[in-house]
């Protein structure tokens, strides 16, 4: 299961739409590692703590625990969760391997860097024997 959903929230969802803020709160509580990772990358991007000329901030460190890795994989594998995080933080998220997450400025100017980061070539270059079964 990706999220821990309270009986009250489930009842609300069954009755109709749930707003993004409520959904993001559920994500924050259920998946703290990816939420905090995207939040910290977004802060780095906003502060300009990125390579010169870069329109993105990325993480290359593996999660400290398997539980954190599992949370990250669940968050990145869900279009709904990833989309809610993108809207909440006003970024575009990209994901490589089992831990490399990047947040991009959503402005069109960042599009070329996003396309390079998400290309097959970038995926191939980001491989290493240690990541085969991560």
Attribute tags:
134 residues, mainly alpha, three-stranded antiparallel beta sheet, 7 helices, 54% helix, globular
Structural class: mainly alpha
Number of domains: 1
Strand segment tally? 3
Distance between the termini: 19 Å
Order of helices and strands: HHHEHHEEHH
| Beta-strand percentage range | 5-15%
Please state the average pLDDT score: 86
Counting DSSP H or I runs of 4 or more residues, the number of helices is: 7
User: Main beta sheet: strand number and arrangement?
Assistant: 3 strands, antiparallel
Outline type = globular
Radius of gyration over all CA atoms, rounded: 16 Å
Runs in which pLDDT lies below 50 for 5 or more consecutive residues are: none
Description:
The protein is mainly α. It has one domain (7-131). Helix content is 54%, strand content 10%. The chain is built from seven helices and three strands; from the N terminus they run H-H-H-E-H-H-E-E-H-H. It has helices spanning 7-15, 20-30, 32-47, 66-77, 79-89, 111-117, 120-125, and strands spanning 56-59, 92-96, 100-104. Strand 2 (92-96) and strand 3 (100-104) form a beta hairpin. The relative contact order is 0.15. The model has no long low-confidence stretch (mean pLDDT 86).
Give a short summary of the structure.
By secondary structure, the chain is mainly alpha-helical.
SSE inventory with pairings:
Elements: H1 7-15, H2 20-30, H3 32-47, E1 56-59, H4 66-77, H5 79-89, E2 92-96, E3 100-104, H6 111-117, H7 120-125
């Amino acid at each position: 299961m990706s999220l821990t959903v309270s009986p009250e929230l489930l009842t609300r969802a069954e009755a109709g739409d749930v707003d993004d803020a409520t959904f993001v709160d559920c994500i924050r509580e259920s998946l703290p590692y990816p939420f905090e990772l995207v939040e910290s990358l977004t802060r780095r991007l906003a502060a300009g703590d990125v390579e010169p000329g870069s329109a993105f901030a990325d993480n290359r460190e593996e999660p400290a625990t398997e539980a954190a890795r599992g949370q990250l994989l669940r968050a990145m594998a869900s279009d709904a969760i990833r989309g809610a995080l993108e809207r909440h933080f006003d970024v575009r998220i990209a994901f490589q391997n089992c831990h490399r997450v990047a947040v991009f400025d959503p402005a069109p100017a960042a599009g070329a860097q996003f396309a390079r980061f998400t290309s097959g070539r970038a995926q191939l270059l980001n491989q290493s024997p240690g990541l085969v079964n991560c």
